[in-house]
Structures are given as C-alpha cells and as structure tokens.
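We modelled the chain as a single entity of 119 amino acids. Its sequence is:
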Amino acid sequence: MVHFHLKDKDASKKATPLRVIVAFRCFTGKFVMQKVTKSHPYSVPVLMHALDILEFLRGSDISLKPEEISCATGVSRTSTYRILHTFVRRGYIAQDPGGKFSVLNIPAKTVISPQIENR
C-alpha cells in the first residue's frame, strides 16, 4: 500500500516536499511504515540508506540476514548487500558463518589533525 501526499504550491511558487508513506510486510509478518521526504537537496541517498542500515543493526539484539535487514529498512536487496559488505570491509559490522550480520562494538575513530607550525 502506498499513499502519496502532495500539497499545493505556496505563495512563493515553490512546491512543498512530496511525502510518500510506504507500508509493506516485513520478515516478521508485521507491516512496516516508512516516510520518505524529498526536501533535502544536499543529502546523499546511498549514505542515508547506509546509515539507516547501520542504525537498524545497532538497535538489534540478534544477528540478521541481509533479506531481513532489507525488508526492515526498505533498502533494496542489492544495495543492502553492497552496503553490508562495505561495512564489513571497513570493520563496522561482522558477518557470521551463517551469513548473518551484527554491529561490532568499536571505539570512535581518532581524528588526526595536521600539525600546525608556529611561525
């Protein structure tokens, strides 16, 4: 089920953002509702998806299959697979022998600043 809400143009002749509410059955059999707003022109969609996946895994107490993660986050299976394997490669999440993923408890990375010379 998909609902579209588009408001009329405002006084400044700019259209208000399109809001899409998407409902779908997830691996748990429950309906998942997501709201997508296209009002941030400087956001990077793939980064938003990656952060959605990472935040979802951080909130999970169990390891999950890519299909479960894809269904729960609304990110396509292909993108989910690629994002998960990128996170594994970078050391943010782990993949167990059964193919399930979980977040690693890693400390914040140290920021290295350039040395400033006194003149």
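As a brief sanity check on the tokenised model: The two ends are 65 Å apart (CA to CA). Confidence is low (pLDDT under 50) at residues 1-11, 15-23.
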